[in-house]
Amino acid sequence: MNNIALTADVSSKVNLVKSIANKTRGPYTPEKYGSVIIPMAIIRRFDCILADKNAAIDQILQASSKIKGITPEKKEELVKRQCGVPFYNAKCVSLEQLVGDSDNLNSNFLEFIAAYSPSIQRILQSLKFREEVEFMIKKGILFEVVKAFSEVDFHPSTTNSIAMGYIFEEIIRTYKANAEAGDHYTPREVIELCIDLMLSENVDSLKKEGKIIRIYDGCCGTGGMLTTAKRMLTDPEEGFGIRAENIRLYGQDNNPEAYAVCQAEMLMLGDEPTYIREGNTLTEDRFPGEKFDLLITNPPFGVEWKTEKSAVEKELKQPNNRFVAGTPRVSDGQLLFLQNLLAKAEDDARIAIILNGSPLFSGDAGSGESEIRRYVLENHLLEAIVALPDQMFYNTGIYTYVWIFSKTPNPRRNHKIQLIDATALYVPQMPKSLGNKRKYIDDANRRKIVAEYTSFAPSEISRIFDADDFGYTKVTMECPLYDEQGNKVIKRGVVQVDPKRRDTETIPRKQDIDAYIKAEVLPYVPDAFADRSKDKIGYEIPFTRYFYKYTPPRKSSEILQEIIENEAALQETLKAVLQ
Asked: Considering the entire predicted model, what is its pTM?
């Protein structure tokens, strides 16, 4: 499905679901709609997947009931083996059939949700859906809601996994009040770009026969990054053609609705749902000590971690903690999520993370942010940063950046860092925008970006740097304190400094500090001297500066002529109006 068709299909089905939400108005206030809409959307997707399999599943369940001591989990295995889906509903009916018996819908629907197999029961229980069903029965609206969802087409033949992922994400974004401003679901074309960049080089170890590839996302949301990575790895034409059974997907998320949807996605695609775990990645690492081969995440942008601060500081005191490079200011935890990935990466792992502009330059020399940048640069972990177009995400229009890391640097890159400005490589989002998303990276532009990365050469949109190019020394410059007669104040043989004249100089790492002071400071302040005991090393990546193109100002004569022409046009307009 191309972008235009996909966007239109997603929009129409999301709008249909939104219209169903209005049926709960009254008993539910708008901020509570999600308590019904999200689990009902999940159930309808399961219902559509099972629709043409229920007859066969019914026979399997009847036959298996004769096996002494068989458990529901064993029945799931039988169904998976014979029907290709790792779950079932023991009623073996659809929502359409339930609606057909309208007089008994309330009791039948309670039995229906209780008849799901254990894998789905865990998801519905985490959403506390039975309580919502009983509330809808009490308020007399269950029939209308179930009937409306029975008319929604979520069948896999018409709504593929990519479209379904978008629909789930848009539903959660729309109806969850706790979906913070910093939570951004990642467009699939951006995920595809990240994975292409990760897999374009230095991945020989992934191609080994029988290699089990473990993929991890510490902010997995509804699982889009994980499922897209698997799809691309198993693609026999454009990917590696890796066998699906050799790929393991692991994810963690703190949003209970997104976590439930992600588990549902794993079930639908035949992956292990227990590898998706709920909890705050910064404070409740659900995969302690485990290592992964491919790590990809899009953490919340600019969200404070004040409530997690005590737990993070407690972990800092432990050996082999995840945050060895330091901690950023509490107003933005993005660089903590980055360190989590680095800590969980195998020695030959590849890593991609999507960040906003803040981690590039926020924080002065010696600050937590600067020390984290220093750690990744001096340890030669960072390979490249790609600047994406703005207006790529559904609920923010800001510029974002893909950072690519490798625990084992590619010798070809010789510890250098590549910056790629891809801000102009997009097409308009068609047929219309989705929220704030107005731009789309099509296949042609994605290939251009990956080609720039793999060519590893300077170009119009690519620059190559040493790590030291981003480093600087912040040197404190002092001046003597003078008395009223203009003499230096000396106490106990030490010249006193004038704190009012104290200043600092930011000196690039590649420059000799003494030579810099002699050339840039002393000609203007001859009595200044450096207090080198206060030196601080800092790192920042002023991305836009390296791609800035000077545009000369227009000539004053051109501006004057334009003003005269505009005034003349205005006079003609006024003349016509007055006449």
From this structure: 0.86
